[in-house]
TrEMBL record:
<keyword id="KW-0496">Mitochondrion</keyword>
<dbReference type="InterPro" id="IPR014729">
    <property type="entry name" value="Rossmann-like_a/b/a_fold"/>
</dbReference>
<protein>
    <recommendedName>
        <fullName>Probable electron transfer flavoprotein subunit beta</fullName>
    </recommendedName>
</protein>
<dbReference type="GO" id="GO:0005759">
    <property type="term" value="C:mitochondrial matrix"/>
</dbReference>
<dbReference type="InterPro" id="IPR014730">
    <property type="entry name" value="ETF_a/b_N"/>
</dbReference>
<dbReference type="InterPro" id="IPR000049">
    <property type="entry name" value="ET-Flavoprotein_bsu_CS"/>
</dbReference>
<comment type="subunit">
    <text>Heterodimer of an alpha and a beta subunit.</text>
</comment>
<keyword id="KW-0813">Transport</keyword>
<comment type="similarity">
    <text>Belongs to the ETF beta-subunit/FixA family.</text>
</comment>
<keyword id="KW-0249">Electron transport</keyword>
<dbReference type="GO" id="GO:0009063">
    <property type="term" value="P:amino acid catabolic process"/>
</dbReference>
<dbReference type="Pfam" id="PF01012">
    <property type="entry name" value="ETF"/>
</dbReference>
<feature type="domain" description="Electron transfer flavoprotein alpha/beta-subunit N-terminal">
    <location>
        <begin position="25"/>
        <end position="215"/>
    </location>
</feature>
<comment type="function">
    <text>The electron transfer flavoprotein serves as a specific electron acceptor for several dehydrogenases, including five acyl-CoA dehydrogenases, glutaryl-CoA and sarcosine dehydrogenase. It transfers the electrons to the main mitochondrial respiratory chain via ETF-ubiquinone oxidoreductase (ETF dehydrogenase).</text>
</comment>
<dbReference type="InterPro" id="IPR012255">
    <property type="entry name" value="ETF_b"/>
</dbReference>
<dbReference type="GO" id="GO:0033539">
    <property type="term" value="P:fatty acid beta-oxidation using acyl-CoA dehydrogenase"/>
</dbReference>
<dbReference type="InterPro" id="IPR033948">
    <property type="entry name" value="ETF_beta_N"/>
</dbReference>
Amino acid sequence: SKSLRIIVPVKRVIDYAVKVRVNPAKTDVDRNVKHSMNPFDEIAVEEAVRIKERLPSTEIIAVSCGSAKSQETLRTALAMGADKAIHVEVADDSKLQPLGVAKLLKAIAEEQKPDLIILGKQAIDDDSNQTGQMLAGLLNWPQATFASKVEITDTLAKVTREVDGGLETISSKLPAIITTDLRLNEPRYASLPNIMKAKKKPLTKSTPEQLKVDITPRLETIKVEEPAKRQGGKKVESVDDLIDKLKNEAKV
Ligand code: AMP
């Protein structure tokens, strides 16, 4: 069978286990905390590696857009089994929004000519759930979002999607965009020998200017606030008392 080329975009985000806090100026969350690869992107890398295990001539290219630290995330992808990495350097991560990332990924896709791009369904820091869909639109490629199962043949992607009340299976021609849902797979941990090997794998750098992409933000953050504190609960004496409080205090 022919060889496949897969791009996997991976984002460096605040680690899922960190309790996120708003900064004192209320302009952003405190980003001075542990970061890791976006969990849905780990699932995307894992899926690409599983495809490569079945079709060994597959080439996996991890791409990350962001500050120099994004290279740590790319090394993790390489240690999990990606073959090479591309870092699109954007000094200030806060300037990057999904449309800008989608345009950068489109430019990379036009250079690398992949058969498949597997993204996370969403980044857990901005919860946008936009980049994959925008990229499919910009490239004019079919998209299969929220994948819980993926089967690839020479020319087709068969994807099972989690939809309300069940599972939907669709088939699309390649090249295509797939976004991963939580239950697609359980990502492997990179072994120490593979972490060592990853240091020698090729990592090339690019910039929005080199890719001729304008990443000017389209949205402005006005403020960032903590959610309202929960009010303490109250015990009621009787059902009548409950109904009275619901009517007169909670105004239900
Ligand atoms: P979002 O639309 O921000 O929720 O992100 C959806 C997916 O797009 C992520 O799971 C990543 O696969 C990809 N993505 C978003 N931002 C970046 C980035 N800065 N670098 C690489 N991939 C990204």
